[in-house]
Design a protein that fits this description.
- The protein has 9 helices and 11 strands.
- The chain is an alpha/beta fold and 249 residues long.
- The strands form 2 sheets. Strands 1, 4, 5, 6, 7, 8, 9, 10 and 11 form a 9-stranded mixed sheet that branches. It has a two-stranded antiparallel ribbon with strand order 2-3.
- The radius of gyration is 18 Å and the shape is globular.
- The two termini are 33 Å apart.
Length: 249
Amino acid sequence: MNFIAIIPARFASTRFPGKPLAIIDGKTMIARVYEQVCKANCFSQVWIATDDTRIETEAQHIGAKVKMTSTKHRSGTERCAEVVSKITCNENDVIVNIQGDEPFINPQQIIELTSCFNNEEVQIATLLKQITDNNLIQNPNVVKVVTDLQNNALYFSRSVIPYLRNNTSQTPTYYQHIGIYAYKVAVLQKIVALPMTNLEITEQLEQLRWLEHGFKIHTHITAIDSAIGIDTKEDLELVINLLKNHKLS
């Protein structure tokens, strides 16, 4: 079993067009993501998957392997699946999908995710982190997760789950979904062919489609703080200021 990293990088972001090529302290965002992924040192292949020749050119400039993919993909998962159809791999290899807008992702989190596949029964894996900040718990942009006793996801939601019905001494534990996925190749090929489901459409969370169709998503709780994702130009300015003030490395 080999681990293969794929970094989907789309140019036409609605909120931040050209985001992968944004400069952060002298390097493009996609270059920083690629460097962090390579530091995990657990991959037989690392690919950048894009739909734009400008990102392809930057990938080649930094020495990364790159595949051009369709502009019609609705998710990074679909983009990863197209790359898989174009590279050499087998059905038991594991694809790790790292978002192209997290230039400070911790390589140790990636290693933690790959360790889930020490269990041969794991089909899909992702990361969780405990949250205690009530603002984050209430924030619909922070996806919450509940799991079963074997650490398989039961449900993902933008709402607060579990719901605390009575004010008792029994305080629930809340977990945030960290949006990095790993899937066995054979499973990835199946889940991208699934029709969309009502829950997915309602919550706008693709992983609900997989659950509704009966696939298990194994979760690993990480103690590592989430990387700062960059969705907007304001996020970029925040990151640049943190770097200038030596509050981010």
